[in-house]
Design brief:
With 298 residues, the chain is an alpha/beta fold. The chain is built from eleven helices and eight strands. The chain has an eight-stranded mixed sheet, with helices on both faces. It binds thiamine diphosphate and iron/sulfur cluster. The site of thiamine diphosphate has 17 residues, from helix 2, strand 3 and helix 4. Heterotetramer of one alpha, one beta, one delta and one gamma chain.
């Protein structure tokens, strides 16, 4: 454990080929630091398996089952059931690790089934807000106004004009046991939440912010700052849903979305008017979140 309270043991080796400053790799690194060596990871086609875990090589010191794109939660359910039958579930964590495309788009029905069936899985969606390893195509997690290769600038409505699908609301509607958002720019909060998932008997869902210099077009050294701005602007609030109760973990929403947008090439083309609309949207979502916290804690 270092002085900041982050476990010092590493389960990611050097020699992976993630881009410098990759947030997704940091998400996995922190998650494994907390879960430890008795963890089995399953992951689909995505940046992570492309750069860090592609069969037969892996940069992790724990086992990896490489699954088909839409099957992460189903594969994790199978691993969990097998461990249970063998009497080994008590001392092993099953970590399902997938990108936003593999989670919120193609993999969503497997998640729905796994929550409903009560599988004891820790599901981490690392959200880099596009299909990155296949060339930065838009996903349902691509934020308002962002350009991607499928939403290029130049056309009428040539950028993302629908807000992100809210995965936390979707898992909450399944009465998931525990769900939380995490951001690698806030490592202590991150670690506390993964610690909590270890005690949950059933499905835990973690929606992890994963900054991506390549897809978002900013210099790699700005990742942690961009991550902090995402939370300080309310664009990526930190909160948890613990057996139905909402708890906001960071309430200092002090900055305007322009502070976050102006650092990234994917937002460079936007008009002041569009950014104002985004600001109004973020403010409304923040108010809704405050109300959910108030109502569920009465
Ligand atoms: C059924 C199926 N459809 C499409 C693909 C091609 N494919 C592989 S990875 C990927 C994108 C993954 O995006 P995401 O889950 O967001 O992860 P990221 O690449 O951003 O890490 C796609 C479309 C596939 N492997 N299988
Ligand atoms: S494209 Fe983005 S998510 Fe993929 S390895 Fe590079 S920085 Fe990481």
């Amino acid at each position: 454990m270092n002085r900041a309270g982050v476990p010092s043991e590493e389960f990611i080796c050097s020699g992976h080929s993630a881009c410098p400053g990759c947030g997704a790799l940091l998400v996995l690194r922190y998650a494994l630091k907390v879960l430890g060596k008795n963890t089995i990871v399953t992951s689909p086609a995505c940046c992570f398996t492309a750069v860090a875990g592609m069969f037969p090589d892996t940069c992790m010191k724990v086992p990896l089952l490489y699954n088909a794109f839409e099957t992460t939660a189903a594969s994790a359910s199978g691993i969990e059931a097998a461990l249970r039958i063998k009497g080994k579930k008590e001392d092993t964590y099953v970590l399902a690790f997938a990108g936003d495309g593999g989670t919120a788009d193609i993999g969503i029905q497997a998640i729905s089934g796994a929550i409903e069936s009560g599988h004891d899985i820790i599901y981490v969606c690392y959200d880099n807000e596009a299909y990155m390893n296949t060339g930065i195509q838009s996903s349902s997690q691509t934020p308002l106004g962002a350009t991607t290769t499928t939403n290029p600038v130049g056309k009428e409505d040539g950028w993302k004009v629908t807000p992100k699908k809210n995965m936390m609301d979707i898992v909450a509607a399944h009465n998931v046991k525990y769900a939380a958002t995490v951001n690698p720019s806030y490592p202590i909060d991150f670690i506390k939440k993964i610690e909590k998932t270890k005690k949950v008997k059933g499905f835990s869902y973690i929606h992890a912010y994963a900054f991506c210099p390549t897809g978002w077009r900013y210099p790699p050294e700005l990742g942690l700052e961009i991550g902090r701005l995402a939370t300080e602007t309310g664009i990526f609030p930190l909160y948890e849903i613990d057996n139905g109760k909402y708890n906001i973990n960071y309430k200092k929403k002090t900055k305007d979305v322009i502070e976050y947008y102006k650092l990234q090439g994917r937002f460079k083309h936007l008009s002041d008017e569009f950014v104002k609309d985004v600001q109004n949207y973020v403010n409304r979502e923040w108010q809704k979140l405050l109300l959910k916290e108030e109502c569920t804690n009465k």
